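In this section we walk through a basic example: taking a raw amino acid sequence and producing a predicted 3D structure, encoded as discrete structure tokens. The instruction is simple. Fold the sequence below.
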Amino acid sequence: MKRILALLLVTTMPWGAASLVPAQTDAQAEKAKMVEKKVKSYAGEATMMPAPEVQMSRLTKGLQLTEEQQKQIRPLLDEEFVQLKKIQQNENISPKQIQKQVEALRTETNAKMHTYLTPEQREKHDLVSKEIKANKQRRIKANRKARIGTKAEPPPPVSK
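The resulting token sequence is shown next.
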């Protein structure tokens, strides 16, 4: 009797373990969806960057833009803002894809903007941009450590 019970137990254990694996992946998928919804709800009507008027006033003050430069740069900022709104409203792409698209758009806009700046203004703009990117990386690292814990260093890059 004990042997039959042991045999029955041994044969049914893999089925029980196998039934837990899909449950875990379903739970993980559900958790990922909840996190995505929460992130989108926190964003609400928030924008990925300030309105063109705010950016223009900052650039004018920081780089001492002339009236002519302001007229040339303003349409670039307006177009970038419209494109960012489209990216933000797209429900079919992941946050990483959004980030890539936003970075590409900002790089393109900065390249166009540099054509209207003097060399001194370009140098100052690049310096501020590098500082902003460094601050962003620090915030990302701090947020990662807050979410994951103190051992939150990203994995080392894989060399090919």
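Looking at the output, two observations stand out. The mean pLDDT is 79. Residues 71 and 107 are 20 Å apart (CA to CA). In the next section we compare this with other chains.
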